[in-house]
Please model this.
Amino acid sequence: MALVPFDDRDGMIWWNGQLRPWRDAKLHVLSHGLHYGSAVFEGERAYGGNIFKLTEHSERLKNSAAILGYDVPYTVAEIDEACRATLAANNLTDAYVRPIAWRGSEQLAVSAKLTSINLAIAVWAWPNLFGADRMKGVRLGLAAWRRPHPETAPTASKAAGLYMIGTMSKHKAEDQGFDDALMLDWRGQVAEATGANIFFVIDGALHTPKPDCFLDGITRRTVMGIARRHGIKVVERAILPEEMAQATEVFLAGTAAEVTPVRQIGELSFIPGPVTERLLRDYEALVQMSPEKVAALAA
Ligand code: PMP
Model:
């Protein structure tokens, strides 16, 4: 499939309170967000017209900005509404939703207290990150780059600047024939893939690294909830790379990746199995439910 450049598409993009034609949603090159990495963003998915866990995403967006020291000048309810309005304006029911906040071009220096804070929201059709036949599993290469210490980078923020580590890692993995990269953290413990969290099935229980230096994904928390409802034990702990060989199943969880089985990590092979398949199917069913039903299940 030929890639249509993102600036050569049609539709409407929400921009600081108004819907603008897609092609007019342009930014000045001297924007602080571009030069100094002050943007924060979200990745959401709409299913059947409902944006899954929308409010949690809007809250995380506000929090990501707060960690970087600025306030997104809209309430969580206003951001929720703007996301819904953008989806509707593009006549989409099943789509990826990308809100992004950034510091503007009023001041271009490390200190940026006089910059405006901007928010834009785009939506587009985007099937599963790893394609339709994802049950066969994806292959992960081990990244050379590590997730940084939380005192080295604002690791709890979905900050654009942190994605340079992911892009470098993913490019190298792709060059080596893998689908994605598995990154370790600064201590050498297993952390996450470049856009999704990781889970291991060990002795029938679900093991996943503690999110103390990377994003505590909304999908991650959702999958842990599904597992617990099935009576599957969930263990959040430090996982060393040497332990990965004990896993009978491995999978990724993220908004774009949804639940995606992993069939290889470096030299290790895994067979996508029943625990992963059950969680994958349950996640697929959950995202199709009404927001009220989803909230009731989570309570
Ligand atoms: N880690 C990274 C680096 C990500 O980009 C994402 C996707 N936002 C995740 C984890 C998973 O987060 P979520 O389930 O909230 O999409």
Summary: The helical segments are 32-36, 54-67, 76-89, 163-175, 218-229, 274-287, 291-298. The pocket of 4'-deoxy-4'-aminopyridoxal-5'-phosphate is lined by residues 43, 166, 192, 195-197, 214-215, 217-220, 254-255 (CB under 6 Å).
